[in-house]
Amino acid sequence: MNNLDFIYKRHSVRKFKNEDVPLDHIRDIIKAATYAPSGKNLQNWHFIIVKNKEKIDGMALTIENKAYEMVDSINDEELKKEFLKYLKYTTVFKNAPVAILIFAGPYPATGLEILKAKGASNEEIHQLLRPSPGIQNIGAATQNLMLAAANMGYGTCWMTSANFASKELSKFIGFEKEGYYLAAITPLGVPEESELTSPARKPIDEIMTIIE
């Protein structure tokens, strides 16, 4: 067996069985998430676990309401149609018994205050912030979460398309933490399909450069 097989178990799952996910399993999955690398060991993440079906449905409705509110004053029918056609994918977490909202907190980019103190240009500051070091912590934690879930037989799906309704979602679930904002959502549950596949990946030689 390949020691990396656990990685290839992860797929984007959007259909789930009507089976509960025990809380101790969720705790194990979140614990795995927190073992991701974190710059300055700030661990600037927070995970909201929603197991209440009415709440999950309410989250989906909150997103839908925000989407229609956003397009209400738009006259470009094609633009509206293009935006709204993805709405069903934005709310697929409602098909799962659990929804996990992943929040990101403040992160001081190394060197930012120095650049500001020396009167650096906006371009210099943009170049420093461009790699988004704080959100990289969240990405690493989310990946850990999904790999752990897959290895335990659960399905997940990395979702950021609902971020246009992040303030409304935070208010709906009643989560407030200074400086924290919604970064991603994932459903969690037992996949409905027994055979899961992923889209083909680009050839290694296309995405890797070796300098010797």
UniProtKB/TrEMBL annotation:
Protein name (record): Nitroreductase family protein
Nitroreductase domain location: 7-189
Domain of life: Bacteria
